[in-house]
């Protein structure tokens, strides 16, 4: 690989161009200039639309920018020109999404660039593989996700973390009138939960007296740096840095090494326990995989790390934006509190499942602020999309979940309103609500087709338990000036830029 990079043509022509545009930053005048007119980005020879892309990335507005372009694009689809002649098709069209995620599933796969970009971190885990390996992991994971014992275990983990850690932290903040970064609190909460569910290991990330664990810090760094690889104008840039072991790639190598070594130590310990006891008493996912005969160290390490990544920031991202939206919509918050108080003090699974209005409000929140705002597939052969867009082999097709939540063609002219009732209908004369789901191709928050999220129901259960536990006792009030809107940014999952700083008030009525 290094010999290829040292080719004279690379040094004399391509490398200087890449370095120039890598360090090129728009002037403050260009940054400050805003326009209400949305236009397709200009494309230039060699660099494509890099100038426009880089300008938006520097202001963390790339997600919104692409969403605005889709709003004006025919069939909610357009082609983005990347440097060195690469093209991406960006879409928010439900028919196109059904085409790539279901109808032509076999030819739209996790592309070579996607797999290579995340391979150092995720290996060949379920979210970073295709074909027979994916099918096998999916089958193994699907069997475990559909067991009542895992559901009960997850409920126990979430309730324990909620009652022993999250609620005491909020109680203390309320009494001391402290400001909390609620996004950080929810991320720590989710990390503790997913580590206990996946590994049977408690990192105590949310415990106030415990410093951030080495594993948690390494996992965070690996996630952020891996996601930033996708933002480079060319994969050659991060590959050169990795080959030279410099900068962010050096930090990534150290972080990934720590994550994998920690994970493999837990795998080895579990395997020893299994050998000594014949069966494991614990019911975490790792124990289940090992007990069912899947003992290959690399296999179980990769799949468990993938599930930690999937569960680490998705529910916390959804809840962060949910609580912010509630603070702006007291009518919705009052309806949710009423529903919570209609249930028992410590809701059982069926009671949480029956929190229909809360469920609708969570769906509505994720419509506007999806935890994973975009996803992509690569065509392994030539194809034509339903709207006539020609897709050549090797072209990446990105479906823009964030943009879809803002399309009038899907949600109507009131799409900007946070209105849970759009997911509900009245049942006869009873006055009770019935939840009405949208098809997964119009609402691909949990993906769609054969790769639809296995943990969807588990995620809703966790989120509703947190909502019930928090809102039964507290009001979450943003500690920002009136009218200040948080910025939506994304790495592998979405975040609120700068955190979500709040005051916790005891609920008196």
Care to describe what's here?
The chain is an alpha+beta fold and 509 residues long. It is globular, with a radius of gyration of 23 Å. 54% of the residues lie in helices and 11% in strands. It contains 22 helices and 14 strands. Strand 9 (424-427) and strand 10 form a beta hairpin. The model is unreliable at 1-35 (pLDDT under 50). The chain starts with a helix and ends with a strand. A five-stranded mixed β-sheet has the order 1-2-8-5-3.
Short description:
By secondary structure, the chain is of the alpha+beta class. It is built from 22 helices and 14 strands.
Q: Quick check: average pLDDT? A: 87
Termini separation comes to: 66 Å
Shape: globular
Helix coverage percent = 40-55%
Assembly of the depicted chains: single chain
In angstroms, what is the radius of gyration? 23 Å
Low-confidence runs: 1-35
Helical region count?
22
Largest sheet: 5 strands, mixed
Number of strands: 14
Tell me the structural class.
Answer: alpha+beta
Side by side, the strands of the main sheet go: 1-2-8-5-3
State which percent range the strand residues make up. Answer: 5-15%
Question: How would you describe this structure in keywords?
Answer:
alpha+beta, single chain, 509 residues, five-stranded mixed sheet, globular
Set out the fold topology.
Layout: H1 2-5, H2 8-23, H3 28-32, H4 50-58, H5 62-72, E1 77-81, E2 87-91, H6 94-103, E3 108-109, H7 112-122, H8 131-145, H9 148-176, E4 179-181, H10 182-198, H11 214-229, H12 235-244, H13 247-277, H14 285-291, H15 297-312, H16 314-328, H17 330-341, H18 349-353, H19 356-368, E5 374-379, E6 383-384, E7 390-391, E8 396-400, H20 401-404, H21 408-411, E9 424-427, E10 432-435, H22 456-471, E11 474-478, E12 488-490, E13 494-496, E14 501-506
Parallel strand pairs: 2-8
Antiparallel strand pairs: 1-2, 3-5, 4-14, 5-8, 6-7, 9-10, 11-14, 12-13
Helix pairs in contact: 7-11, 9-10, 9-22, 10-15, 10-16, 11-13, 12-13, 13-14, 13-15, 16-19, 16-22, 17-19
